[in-house]
Amino acid sequence: MTTPGGSVDPSVRSSMTTATDETEPASSLQADVRQAAGEVARSLPPMTAEQAALIRHLLRDQHH
Fold this sequence. Notes:
Layout: H1 10-15, H2 26-43, H3 49-62
């Protein structure tokens, strides 16, 4: 992906989106991601009890 000099291969750079632009501060990018995630969450139907139980079960398993 990168050349020996450390620069990004031009063919790879052309396929990158502006979201990965290194000039944008990470905190700004994180805020954008959080905002987008919130918009997606609001557009989804409410979670069922079964889905909520499954998510809690999966999260609980991660701590072991």
